[in-house]
Amino acid sequence: MRWLLDQVPPEYRRYDVLRKYPVLLARFAGDHVSAALEAARAGWRSLRVDLAGLLPAEAMDAAMDAYEREGSRLSALGRSVEVVSAALQGKRWVPRL
Question: CA 49, 53, 55, 60 torsion: positive or negative?
Answer without folding.
Answer: positive
